[in-house]
Amino acid sequence: MSEDLHYLPADGRPRCRWCAAAAGDEGYLRYHDLEWGFPVADDRRLFEKLSLEGFQSGLSWRTILNKREAFRAGFAGFDFKQVARFGERDVERLLQDAGIVRHRGKIEAVINNAQRCVELVAEQGSLARYIWSFEPQALDAPAHATETEASRALSRDLKKRGWKFVGPTTMYAFMQAMGLLNDHAPACVIRAEVEKARRLFTPPG
C-alpha cells in the first residue's frame, strides 16, 4: 500500500503524492481521480493499459497519458482483434506517427501481444477473467512495493504465453491502475471512492 504522504493541489483535497509530479496538469489529476485504481473488467481497456504500460518503459506515465488519444487512433482503439491483423505496413505507418512513441520494438510487441490475446481469450473466455484470477491478496501489497508475488506470477504466465514488455514491475503498475488493489494513499480523498467501487465490483469468472 502507498505511504501516507500526500499532495495538496489548489482545490485543497489531498491526493496521492505522485500527482505532484504533474502539478497544474488537470488531465493528469483527472486520470488520478476518475481512473487510477478503479476496477476494470473491459477487455479492450485492459489490453490498452497493458500496451501503454509497455510503451511507458523508460518514460513517464504523464508522457504516455498525453499521447493516449494518438495511441488509440494509431492502434484501432486497442481492439486487439484488429491489432492482431496488423502487418509490416502498419508498423511503418506507426513509426511515422509523431503523436506516439515511435519505438519499433514496442510497436511490434503490441501487435504480438494482440495476437497472443486472441489466443488467450479463446482459451479463457475473456482477458478480464484471466487478469482477475491474479488479483493479489491484501497482504501481498507491502508499502513501497514495485512488484509483488502476484505481479511476478502474472508476468511469468504472460511471458510463458509469448507476451512481451510484461515484466513484474510493469505488471504491478498495471494492477494498481486497473483496480486489482487499492493503492491510493491513506490520506488521498479518492481512496474511499475506490474502496467502495471495489466492494461493489464482481470479478469476472
Describe the protein's architecture and organization.
This protein has 205 residues and is mainly α. 52% of the residues lie in helices and 2% in strands. Strands 1-2 form a two-stranded antiparallel sheet. Helix 2 packs antiparallel against helix 7 (104-124), helix 2 crosses helix 10 (168-177) and helix 9 (149-160) packs across helix 10. The protein is globular, with a radius of gyration of 17 Å. 34% of the residues are buried.
Main pleated-sheet profile:
2 strands, antiparallel
Mean pLDDT: 93
Q: What's the count of strands? A: 2
The proportion of strand residues reads: under 5%
Number of helices: 11
Give the helix level as a range of percent: 40-55%
How large, in whole angstroms, is the Cα Rg? 17 Å
| Uncertain runs | none
* 3D shape: globular
One letter per element, helices H and strands E, the order comes to EEHHHHHHHHHHH
Measure the end-to-end span: 26 Å
Strand order of the largest sheet: 1-2
**Structure classification:** mainly alpha
Protein name: DNA-3-methyladenine glycosylase I
GO molecular function, one term: DNA-3-methyladenine glycosylase activity
Keywords: Glycosidase, Hydrolase
InterPro entries: Adenine_glyco, DNA-3mA_glycosylase, DNA_glycosylase
